[in-house]
Amino acid sequence: MPKRLVIKDIEKCVGCGLCMFACSRRHGEIGNDYSGILPVSLSGFERGATVIFCRACIEPPCAQVCPTNALTPKEGGGVVYREELCIGCKNCINACTIGAIFERRNGKPALCVHCGYCVNYCPHGVLGYEEVEA
Amino acid sequence: MKVLKIDLSKYRYEIEDRRDLFEEWIGGTGVAVQLLKEEMDLNADPLSEENVIVFAVGPFTPAYPLASKTVAMFKSPLTGNLGESHAGGRTAVAIANAGYGAIVIKGKSKKPVYIVVHNDKVYFRDARVIWGIADSLIVGRIIAEREKGRGIRTVMRIGGGGCNLVRYACVTTETYRHFGRLGLGAVFGSKNLMALVVIGRGSRKVPDRRKYKDVYEKIMKLALESGAMKKYHLLGTAVNVLPLNEIRSLPTKNLRSTVFEKAEEISGEALAEHNLGRRIACSHCPIACVHIAALRIPYETEPYFYKTIMISYDYELIYALGSMLGIGSREGLLRLIHKVEIYGLDAMSTGVCLAWATEALERGLISEKETLVKLSFGDVDGYMKAIDYIVKQPNEFYKVLAQGVEKASDVYGGKEFALAFGKNEMPGYHVGHATHIGYLIGLRHSHLDNAGYSLDQKLKEIPPPNEIVDKLVKEEEWRQVLSSLVVCFFARGVYKPEIVAEAFDALGYETSEEELKLKGEKIYREKLKLKIKMGFDPDSLRLPKRIFETECFQGKLSEEYIREALRYWKERYVLPLV
Ligand code: SF4
Ligand code: SF4
Ligand code: SF4
Ligand code: SF4
Questions:
Q1: Structure ipTM
Q2: What is the DSSP string of B153-190?
Q3: Which residues of chain B have pLDDT under 70?
Q4: Per-domain residue ranges for chain B?
Q5: The CATH number, out of the four listed (1.20.1250.20, 1.10.599.10, 1.10.230.10, 3.40.1160.10), of the domain defined by the range B425-577
Q6: What are phi and psi of B411, to 5 degrees?
Q7: What tens-digit pLDDT sequence spans chain A (134 residues)?
Q8: Which of B37, B152, B288, B512 has a 20 to 30 A CA-CA distance from B141?
Q9: CA–CA distance, B50 with B349 (Å, rounded to integer)
């Protein structure tokens, strides 16, 4: 069974973004350019916070609209991303219904590949890394 | 490190590489002092086109957790001297990810605008439609819905307080964090600047991944496990209410007392038990000290209709709008905090101004003709109306009160109980001599400059005044390093000198504890020099009589002791710079 980044309890999210920074660190980067997860407020922090990341679709629309096969469906859900094929057309960004593909400075996408690295940096038990039914 | 300079008079901007500044002055406070010196005519009127605002972050943003503050520097319309104010939220991280170490704002727009900085582009947006919306929460929401960058941006805005030039108006960011002190909101207002939005997506390469990871983990561990930040973990800063009340240090009813009979009711414990609805965090902070209360209020006329508002509380607000005004009901306190939040006012200044007005009214220095509403300690409704009046300024009295308690007592008297230090309204501690010496010599006249209130609690016996001054200055010097790194002061127990040096090392900069300390001293001196050039005169510091009348933790304070401390400070630290 594939392992996935999952939400344990979204109501606990405080919007700190530690997950986001962890995701870019994975690439040896300080900042958020490479991050595949985004902490947002719910139209203002008075209503709390949440995180947005890839759901690992079984039939991923993002891959369907990619003209170069930079994004291809992964067995068990989600996508494989090959940077060297990407032309930065942003089709995928528009195709993802939940807005889980983010535009990097160079116009190419950043998205979650379900590696689980960020889980250890969420101090509030919002995130988990678990095997799921494909 | 880049500096973005925006000129509101010409609607132009430029980006400069100023590595030199950051290498020498670290970032934050250190760099802001230099940029202000370079950019501003130091004699400028704070509410004129000539005033300049600097926002600066540091080399640890966003490399490490808790480097989450932004330093704002400007000329204060409240004191007429150097203004410096720090805020958390997402501002620091957004500025850093957009690629900047600092943003400078100059000039004045002809019409209301707000600015959007999106990485290397700057946009000027028409704000005529939203100008004058009194509720800064709504201003924030409108702008957030119009602009891009959800999750990676900061929306720094003013409300009615800033638009109407209340000299202690703040700039609010991410709903609940503030550039609170010294009137940055009025400076925004005077420039016709409703908001500054910064959207930042970007990153930089880690030079040494192994080392960097190790230091990062170490800092995280210290923050989460060592107890260095425990206090802020649980009850937030509101944890201070009861202990300060216990040791007779909680300013109550315009500091006529330091023990508040209803302290229990408005304590951090009670708020947590009855009202705490949620906690949130500044960007890159594992603590989440921002405590938000949920307050359910029934509609006045309709049965079974309720509204629920979310109100962020902190110790300083509980003091200023609670004990200082004799407010002992949580609901009343939260309503007052919400009111101040909406308008974007500095809560401490507002509370102290109202406390003075209440006493001035009691003593007949002013009448209800001036205040328009009956003000008495403990009466929430009166204060709710008075806060409206501070913002709307319907008569001469409120025009004056909107300029601060120093000004108000110049005009109406009552200096003995006008609680301002260096013209900045008093923070929530009346512990002992060091507390007040700290406010007076602190370069921001803030309790956070040098934490005199904490020193007072640690002293076994009272040393000669010069020793106190040296200790306070030493603390303030180290805090210049922290605020140049823009590390949250609550994390000062984590970012000890040796950790700071290690953290620098992992980013490829060599430094030592010794060098850092020297930098702190240098930045302190530079800031003091800037203050002097702006007209600061230590001899003009006023000591409100009230602080010598009301007993505190150290008993009755001695005026001679504090005066001696000021004499020593001037001779030892100020005169060599003149
Ligand atoms: S990026 Fe969006 S569309 Fe693509 S797999 Fe993930 S959730 Fe589905
Ligand atoms: S931006 Fe790149 S990955 Fe996305 S659809 Fe276009 S080519 Fe494919
Ligand atoms: S699971 Fe991996 S790729 Fe996905 S957000 Fe976390 S760190 Fe990034
Ligand atoms: S680290 Fe956890 S609490 Fe913080 S934003 Fe991410 S999911 Fe939310």
A1: 0.95
A2: EEEEE--HHHHTT-TTB-EEETTTEEE-TT-HHHHHHH
A3: none
A4: 2-199, 229-411, 425-577
A5: 1.10.599.10
A6: -80, -45
A7: 789 999 999 999 999 999 999 999 999 999 999 999 999 998 788 888 999 999 999 999 999 999 999 999 999 999 999 999 999 999 999 999 999 999 999 999 999 999 999 999 999 999 999 998 76
A8: B288
A9: 25
Q: Do A29 and B203 touch (CB under 8 A)?
A: yes
**B348 with B447: CB under 8 angstroms?**
no
User: A5 CB under 6 A from ligand 3?
Assistant: yes
- Ligand 1 mean position, distance from CA B117 (Å): 29
Position A46 scores a pLDDT of 82
- Rounded to the nearest 5 degrees, what angle is found at the Cα of A81, between the Cα atoms of B149 and A134? 100
The whole-angstrom separation of Cα A17 and Cα B281 is: 9
Q: What is the pLDDT of residues B175-223, one digit of tens each?
A: 899 999 999 999 999 999 999 999 999 999 999 999 999 999 999 999 9
Domain B229-411 CATH (choose: 1.10.569.10, 1.10.3720.10, 2.40.30.10, 3.40.630.30):
1.10.569.10
Task: Tell whether A123 lies on the interface with B, counting CB pairs under 8 A.
Answer: yes
Alpha-carbon distance of B185 to B179, in angstroms, equals 8
Q: Which of B61, B138, B146, B203 to mutate to test the interface with A (most CBs of A within 10 A)?
A: B203
Residue B40 to residue B436: CA distance in whole angstroms: 31
Query: Which residue is it, tokens 């600061």?
Result: B536
A48/B contact by beta carbon, under 8 A: yes
Amino acid (one-letter) located at B511? T
Residue A40, ligand 2, Cβ within 6 A: no
Residues of A in contact with B213 (CB under 8 A): 25
Question: CA dihedral defined by B212, B214, B218, B221, rounded to 10 degrees?
Answer: 110
User: Residue B365 has which token pair?
Assistant: 């220095």
Task: Say what the pTM is.
Answer: 0.97
Residues A88, A92, A93, CA angle at the centre, nearest 5°? 85
Cβ contacts of A28 on chain B, cutoff 8 Å? 205-206, 209
What is the distance between the alpha carbons of residues B81 and B534, in angstroms, rounded to a whole number?
6
In angstroms, rounded to a whole number, what is the distance separating the alpha carbons of residues A90 and A87?
A: 8
Spell out the residues 6+ positions from residue B333 whose beta carbon is closer than 8 angstroms to its own. Answer: B266, B313, B318, B321, B322, B327
In sequence order, the β-bridge partners of residue A80 are: A72
pLDDT at position A134: 64
Record: fold of A3-126 = Alpha-Beta Plaits (3.30.70)
CATH topology of domain B2-199: Aldehyde Ferredoxin Oxidoreductase;  A, domain 1 (3.60.9)
Chain B nearest-CA distance from A50, in A, is 10
Domains in chain A: boundaries: 3-126
